[in-house]
Amino acid sequence: MVKPTKKEAEKNKSEKSKPSFWSTAPYILIPLIFGLLIAFQTGLLDINEFKEFFGLLDKDGFPGKCAVNSCDTGVCCHNTNYDSSIGTNVSVFAVIVPASCPCPEDTKSEPVGVDNVAPGGPYNICECLEKSK
Predict the structure, then answer these.
(1) Is the link from the previous residue into 98 a cis peptide, with omega within 30 of 0?
(2) Which residues are within 8 A (CB) of 81 and not within 5 positions of it... i.e. 6 or more apart?
(3) Lowest CB count within 10 Å: 32, 72, 108, 119, which one?
(4) Tens-level pLDDT at each residue, the chain (133 residues)
(5) Rounded CA gap, 34 and 42, in Å?
């Protein structure tokens, strides 16, 4: 058996000591992925803002952000609810939507005002259409 030369021995030793990218990638990528999943689940990161940052979504155009009708806002036009704080029934005549969204289908197409005070705003105030008889 031929004994390797000193240079060949050093070359073989240095090739074995260098870790390849694929041998270290799992130690970097797996904790990163689990960290992001935990951050999204706990609310530290918003998935829509994350997608928007990486250009996966339009700023105003991703599905589910803009209401199609007033009920999508959580309040239906002309719905009557009992308000215990004032002790009477209250009818809904307007709804609010994010300022970047158009008014819902069952409201007038142009907003009647803007709410700059409510948290998360500004919001457009959209007046409900006349109730059909």
Answers:
(1) no
(2) 89, 90, 92
(3) 119
(4) 566 676 666 666 655 666 788 888 889 999 999 998 888 888 887 777 776 666 655 444 444 578 888 888 888 887 777 667 777 777 778 888 888 888 888 888 888 989 888 887 788 889 888 765 5
(5) 12
Place of tokens 């030369």: 5
Distance CA 53, CA 59 (A): 9
Q: What is the DSSP string of the chain?
A: -PPPPHHHHHHHHHHHHSPPHHHHHHHHHHHHHHHHHHHHHHTSS-HHHHHHHTTSS-TTTSTTSS-SSGGGGTS-TT-EEEETTTTEEEE--EEEEETTSPPPTTB-SS-SEEE-SSTT--EEEEEBPPPP-
Gyration radius (Cα) of the chain, Å = 29
CB 73, CB 102: distance < 8 Å: no
Which residue, chain included where needed, has tokens 């935990």?
A: 38
This prediction's pTM? 0.47
